[in-house]
């Protein structure tokens, strides 16, 4: 017969299942290897966003007069009247719609708390997929010094965009772990997928608050810089969203955005640069993570929700093999 | 207490509680995040409570009890390194008995499991557990009795001291 103390000891042992705070708080890197733009980040954002945020993603609008850099006005403020975040979302949606057959690449550098900065290079195609369209993403995570950490590829059919959750789909996920020299490939149901770059960028724009625009240059290119001016209501959520955005003056496609926060102590600080490449065979090939020679494949076993892994007396649920 | 202060000071204990309750790190993440989203949005009211942490725990229990998934969760859900850590747990043979308890604990109905966690890990009284679960203390004792019987745990005292977040039982 077991005692209550046996039970207490067993329960205490379960503390090892406690998640890390950085995984459940806003701005935390997601498990699908998107850092600043993790599904969980989006989830936090979407939970607070208004319906306008979602509506803005599917409503292509003509750029409001005075906010486009195509007018030839390079002398200063392009829009004296601030625009709302929802309007900016709609403007970006329109810009993405004009570049559908592009491969988006995001170069993000960020840090969480005092941890060492991490860099994510995320490839995504197509730029703005429609419902049911095949989506491929690849995220290469490395230290700022260039040491590879993980290389994750996902392939899935674009699911409906949820209002208050992150994108979930049945996805084929391939992940290469460089420190462990391991890799795995798995069909994952109801997986929190890495969203297409365009969708995630729009979802991370706060619909609250006002944005002002200024003509500027970025890396020698004419650009428009949008700056978020928070209201008291929007101020409380500012840190979880983009607060500066540079777009190409001609195409209005995003070139750079920043998120910054110094108030909560657990948020991310980061910068993302974007580029849009033609969908050539060479660029499309970069959406698939290569498996380095000598890396071992692991075959994790499926577990039911709440199921506790069997004791060690059973065979290990992981099997490895040389590639 | 601002939400940020709560997160900085009390969140680790809440996370451990969620880990013990769910015995599933990924599920614990999902449950805690759902709760934090809701809690942060009405924090102006929660912070006025004497013990907002207790209310957050209550939210976590309720979220756990109502959690539904249509599909099996597949491991791994993180990096390959994480995967190794998760599916190669540190179950050593000397802990076989403890592991057997955990395996049987995982088969209990969720409410019974929640009662055991709240009683033996969190150290709540049956009355307090009833408040969390929204039932009477007698019902709590019924859940506990059935769960302990299933686990073949002998209850030596009507209410033995429990492990809790503030101080571990020696």
Describe the protein in words.
The N and C termini of chain A lie far apart (48 Å). With 323 residues, chain A is of the alpha+beta class. In chain A, α4 runs parallel beside α5. Chain A has helices at 4-13, 21-24, 39-48, 51-58, 85-97, 197-203, 232-235, 281-285; strands spanning 2-3, 77-84, 102-112, 118-125, 134-143, 148-157, 168-177, 182-192, 210-218, 221-229, 244-248, 254-259, 268-278, 296-299, 302-303, 319-322. Chain B is mainly alpha-helical. Chain B has two domains: 1-67; 93-170, Winged helix-like DNA-binding domain superfamily/Winged helix DNA-binding domain (Arc Repressor Mutant, subunit A). In chain B, 64% of the residues lie in helices and 2% in strands. Chain B has helices at 3-9, 11-22, 25-41, 43-46, 52-66, 80-87, 96-105, 110-121, 126-133, 137-151, and strands at 73-74, 153-154. Chain B is globular, with a radius of gyration of 17 Å. Mean pLDDT of chain B is 73; it is low at 69-94 and 160-170. At the A-B interface, β1, α1, α2, α3 and β7 of A face α1, α2, α3, β1 and α6 of B. β1 of chain A pairs parallel with β2 (153-154) of chain B.
């Amino acid at each position: 017969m077991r005692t209550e103390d046996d039970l207490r000891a067993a329960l205490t042992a379960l503390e090892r299942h406690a998640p890390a705070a950085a995984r459940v708080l806003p701005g935390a890197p997601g498990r699908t290897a998107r850092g600043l733009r993790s599904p969980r980040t989006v989830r936090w954002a979407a939970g607070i966003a208004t319906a306008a945020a979602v509506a803005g993603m599917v409503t292509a609008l003509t750029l409001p007069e005075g906010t486009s850099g195509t007018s030839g006005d390079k002398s200063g403020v392009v829009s004296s009247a601030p625009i709302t975040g929802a309007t900016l979302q709609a403007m970006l949606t329109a810009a993405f719609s004009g570049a559908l057959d592009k491969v988006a690449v995001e170069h993000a550098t960020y840090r969480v708390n005092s941890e060492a900065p991490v860099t994510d290079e995320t490839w995504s195609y197509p730029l703005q997929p429609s419902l049911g369209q095949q989506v491929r993403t690849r995220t290469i995570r490395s230290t700022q010094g260039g040491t590879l950490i993980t290389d994750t590829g996902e392939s899935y059919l674009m699911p409906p965009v949820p209002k208050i959750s992150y994108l979930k789909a049945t996805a084929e996920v391939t992940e290469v772990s460089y420190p462990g020299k391991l890799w795995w490939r798995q069909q994952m149901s109801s997986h929190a997928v890495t969203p297409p770059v365009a969708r995630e960028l729009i979802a991370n724009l706060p619909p609250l608050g006002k944005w002002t625009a200024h003509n500027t240059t970025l890396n020698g290119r004419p650009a428009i810089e949008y700056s978020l001016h928070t209201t008291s209501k929007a101020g409380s959520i500012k840190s979880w969203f983009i607060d500066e955005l540079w777009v190409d003056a001609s195409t209005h496609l995003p070139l750079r955005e920043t998120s910054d926060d110094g108030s909560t102590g657990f948020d991310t600080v980061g910068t993302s640069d974007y580029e849009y490449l033609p969908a050539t065979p060479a660029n499309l090939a970069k959406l698939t993570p290569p498996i380095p020679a000598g890396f071992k494949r692991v075959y994790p076993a499926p577990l039911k929700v709440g199921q506790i892994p069997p004791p060690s007396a059973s065979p290990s649920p992981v099997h490895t093999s040389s590639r | 207490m601002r939400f940020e202060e709560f997160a900085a000071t009390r969140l680790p204990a809440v996370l451990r509680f969620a880990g013990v309750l769910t015995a599933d790190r990924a599920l614990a993440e999902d449950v805690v995040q759902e709760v934090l989203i809701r809690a942060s949005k009405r924090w102006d009211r929660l912070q006025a409570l004497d013990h907002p942490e207790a209310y957050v725990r209550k939210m976590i229990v309720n979220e756990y009890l109502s959690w539904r998934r249509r599909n099996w969760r597949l491991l791994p859900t993180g990096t390959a390194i994480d995967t190794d850590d998760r599916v190669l747990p540190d179950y050593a043979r000397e802990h076989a008995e403890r592991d057997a308890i955990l395996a049987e604990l995982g088969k209990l109905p969720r409410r019974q499991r929640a009662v055991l966690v709240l009683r033996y890990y969190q150290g709540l009284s049956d009355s307090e557990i009833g408040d969390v679960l929204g039932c009477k203390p007698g019902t709590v004792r019924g859940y506990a009795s059935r769960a302990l019987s299933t686990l073949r745990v002998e209850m030596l005292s009507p209410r033995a001291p429990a492990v809790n977040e503030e101080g571990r039982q020696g």
